[in-house]
Amino acid sequence: xxxxxxxxxxxxxxxxxxxxxxxxxxxxxxxxxxxxxxxxxxxxxxxxxxxxxxxxxxxxxxxxxxxxxxxxxxxxxxxxxxxxxxxxxxxxxxxxxxxxxxxxxxxxxxxxxxxxxxxxxxxxxxxxxxxxxxxxxxxxxxxxxxxxxxxxxxxxxxxxxxxxxxxxxxxxxxxxxxxxxxxxxxxxxxxxxxxxxxxxxxxxxxxxxxxxxxxxxxxxxxxxxxxxxxxxxxxxxxxxxxxxxxxxxxxxxxxxxxxxxxxxxxxxxxxx
Length: 272
Prior knowledge:
The protein is mainly β. It has helices at 42-52, 60-69, 176-179, 184-190, and strands spanning 85-89, 92-96, 99-100, 105-117, 121-134, 143-155, 160-173, 192-201, 204-213, 219-227, 237-243, 246-251, 259-262, 265-268. Strands 1, 2, 3, 4, 5, 6, 7, 8, 9, 10, 11, 12, 13 and 14 form a 14-stranded antiparallel β-sheet that branches. The protein starts with 41 loop residues before the first helix and ends with a strand.
């Protein structure tokens, strides 16, 4: 199942106007809502910040889809090159489902991964829709569903170290529940949607994203100048506009607690 492609950007107006050095790629009409969050719910905001946005020392908008795709890669889940069927065409690999692996997992949908160089950048793009579910006892997971597209651009020179355009919805069931019951990552991966663009230039980030994670309600995150200070590896410094006139402030090295302040509400990376 393929998506009609159009530039995935949140539509609301904001005082922050992110500017990208690398032109955003087409990754489809936005899947993530950009409104509906509760600015008083620090727990829900902390979950979104930690599992969707580049604010607490990680880049989950890139890392999460990659990690979820890796769940069905082992030979204990699929039959390599057979189920899903694999096709190679130049710099592209395509997987086609509609099959049941000998390990007891059903595959539906299709997806393509392409990696190439355009002379100035190295690029990686994934797009499609895949659903995998277990039909066996003691599975690695119960169900994985991922749909949309994401594209990473890594310029060969210049101040931009990574540009990401993402428009992905994913659902993971029966994975974290068995490995880390109660860990907030299970809640985040159960219902994760991110649409938009972000860019890292040396030690700071530019972001224009919409996110809806774990049923938090959609929010946008526009920021032009989030400083990834090495003195605080778990938090940036700067501000991000969340829409509806709401701003999130990050203290970075001053606080270094993986927390943001949204007005008088504290939104922290969740822990067990």
